[in-house]
Structures are given as structure tokens and as C-alpha cells.
Amino acid sequence: MSRTRALAAAALLVATMLISPAAAFYSSKGPVVELTSANLKEKIKGSGMMLVEFYAPWCGHCKALKPAWEQAAKALKGIVAVGAADCDTHKEVAGEYRVQGFPTIKLLYVDDSTGSIKTVDYNGGRTAKELVTFALDKAKSLAMKRLGEKADSGSGSRGAGGGGAGGGGGGSDNGFYQGTDVTVLTEDNFKSLVAKSDDLWLVEMYAPWCGHCKALKPAWIEAAGELAGKVKLGAVDCTVHQSVCQEYGVQGYPTIKFFGQNKRSPEDYTGGRDSGSIVAWGNAKFAAMVPPPEPVELISADVFGKECIGDSSGAKPKRLCIIAFLPNLLDSKAAGRNRYIKTLKGLAEAYKDKPYSYLWVEGAQQPALEANFDVGGFGYPAVVAFNPSEKKYTVCKSAFELAHVKDWMETMRMGGTGAVPVHGALAAPSKLAPWDGQDAKEEVVDEFSLDDILNEEL
């Protein structure tokens, strides 16, 4: 063969190699459905449910998975479809389904109510048996859901969510948070308790087998107690209540989301996993979103119970009750009284994330209560901080101006004001008529003539 002909033959061979399609990773005649950017959604909707591998042909882990994947596809034939998408060729598929590594395995199914395609991440073992068990569990769950029943999820398969392939165990939460201050959330109660409520919620989406979730558990329970009355803490077991976790795009465990005023767009929590960090973060959200408590006129024992010491209606004792005994209306006029109340409002704004209440009453109108706190008789306004749980109080010695009272509050919060026990049994406040917001009406004394006295017959 001449040199020219040899070069031509070599060029032809190279050209043939360049234009010939590479051998398919999975045979078109095998049980694995070949998925592309053009047919993926059509295939999923046609089958209703499909276990899908997102792979790259050069990936060593994908090559290692291939025999088990084909075996699982053969076993599930006619039950659950099994497909594979070459993300090296169809990069848009990888982007749409948030594929960040190879192989990524997801269960894709059609949502009955919307017709959209939903996904469940798989993070279990890579044997054919584990893959088949997972797919059958999910098929059973979907079928039972269509019947309005709950599937028995005690098979122990792994999956749903994210957070690594090392976990195991599905089924119920096995009492993970039962009996604690953490609200156990499910597919049945999530919308009514969280999505449609006016409450602020921090929700942990977890898996019982997840090591990070187990490490978080004590702090989550402690924070739930600390934030009671301000931010509710809940938890969703994603291995059982998968639709909730799918709806909020859970990619790993634990995922924590804050459901504030806009429940449709919850905010990711990215703070520390200790109780102190969780409580501080929750308090900051509470302070930002919740208006400060209004100062309340202390006109009855019912008001005192509800706003300060707790009562039979379920109101809990406040950590501190700030009680201002104000000057007589004849002395301060309405304008002066409103300035004092405005100072209380400023204090409430500064500490609105704290479980404090703010009360006021005209001086000498609740004498028994004043005696409890050793104030009254003179020196109004007098401001008292009362701890109803410990039955201790401290009196502000500064001028009743916002800057001075805030300094007193900070010193008190640091334990520097010398709280003392109340004097005697705590009095029940008397019932008073509420202030009408007007100046006091001065009593008019009838005038008399001095002549009447001088001319009076003795």
C-alpha cells in the first residue's frame, strides 16, 4: 500500500471513529429506560413513577452501580419503571433536577392533584435489593395515599431527603420528639398548624437515623421550651412525611426553616446548632416581627392576673412585671400622664423580645399593692420591677425618663439592683374605673360671703 493510500485509510478510520456513536451506557434493548432532555418528562408521566439514575459515562461509581441498576430494573419491570439519564450529554437535565454528583438517584412521580413531577432523593445502599425495596416502599406509599390510607412504613428502607448515603432506617419517628416541647408535624397537620397559622415557627426536617439530627435533638428540645410563647418549634420526619420535605426542597438533614409572616417563602436557618444560638435567633425574629406589648392600666385583680402573675385562663407568669405608680391627674394633667405612658411604651419596645409586661396605675389607688413594694404616699412616679415567680421586686431610683429607666433595667438584668421579697402576702388589686384620657375635673367649692358669718346672730 502506497504512503498516500495508507494516510487516506488512516484519515478515513479516524473520521469514522469521530462520527460513529459511542456505545450506549445502557442497552436500548435492556430493562433500563434511556432518558434525555427531550423525553424525560414524557416518560415519567407515561409511567406515573420511575426510579431514575442521573449519571456520567466516565464516572467510576456509575460504572460500579451499573450491574445492580440493571438487575433492579429487571426485577421491577411492570411494577416501577427504572430509567437513566446521561447528564454528560444532557446537562440541562442535571441542572433542572439539581444533580451535583454522580450517580444521583431520585424517584420521580406524577402528583395526582397538580399533574407536576415530584421527586424523592435516594440515599440508601447500592445493591439491587436495596434499590428494589426503596422503589416498592414508595409505590406502596403512593397507592395507599390514593386510598386515603397510610402505608405501613416499617420495612426499614432508606431514602427521602438528603444528607449522605450512610444513613438507614425509615418508618415512623419512633417517638423521636414525642413527649417534648417540640411539636411533631406530619403531612396531616402541617398546613393547619404551620402553613395557615399566624404563629412564628422554626421547623426541623430530619431523619431519625441521621447523626447530625441526633446531635441536634437535645438543643432543639431545650430551645423549644425557651422560646415557648414566642416562636414554636416543630419537627418533620422526612422518612415518613416525604411530601412536606419535598415541597420545601429539603436536600440534606437536618434542614431547618423559619416560617414567619410569609409562610409561602420560609427562610433557611443557618445559625449554630446549640440551644443558645437557636434561642437567640428565634428571639431576634420574634422581636422584629411582633409588636411590643401595650402598657395596661392596672384596674383590677383580673388584669393583674392576666398581665403579670398568671391566671386560670392559661396565662403564664411573666418573668418581669414593670409597674408604674403615676402622679395624681391633678398634678400631672393628661399630657404629663401620657408622657409617662409613652416612656413605658419605649421600654416595651426596647425589650419586646422578653417575657415582660407593663402596667400603670395612679398613685394611692392601689394602696395594698404599693405596701407590698414599699412605695406610695409620696414620690410619684414610682416604678417597680416585680418577678412573680420568685415574689421579689426592685424599685427604680432614677428619674422616670426612658434613658434612665433603660439603664436601670440593664443593671437589674445583670443582677445589680438588689431584688428583695415582697412585703407580706401579695395583695389583690382593687377594681377601679379606667382613665378616660381626659384631664381631671377639679371640684368646685361653693362661694360664700363673709358678711353672712359676721351678721349671723349669736
From TrEMBL:
One of its GO terms (molecular function) is protein disulfide isomerase activity. Residues 156-170 have a biased composition (Gly residues). It comes from the Eukaryota. Its EC number is 5.3.4.1. InterPro entries: PDI_thioredoxin-like_dom, Thioredox_PDIA6_C, Thioredoxin-like_sf, Thioredoxin_CS, Thioredoxin_domain. It catalyses: Catalyzes the rearrangement of -S-S- bonds in proteins. The keyword Nucleotide-binding does not apply. Residues 14-141, 145-287 form the Thioredoxin domain. Transmembrane segments: none annotated. It holds the Pfam family Thioredox_PDIA6_C. It is found in: Endoplasmic reticulum lumen. Residues 1-24 form the signal peptide. Keywords: Disulfide bond, Endoplasmic reticulum, Isomerase, Redox-active center, Repeat, Signal. CDD domains: PDI_a_P5. Residues 148-170 are annotated as: Disordered. GO terms for biological process: response to endoplasmic reticulum stress. The keyword Signal applies. One of its GO terms (cellular component) is endoplasmic reticulum lumen. PANTHER family: PROTEIN DISULFIDE-ISOMERASE A6 (PTHR45815:SF3). Belongs to the protein disulfide isomerase family. This is protein disulfide-isomerase. It comes from Chlamydomonas incerta.
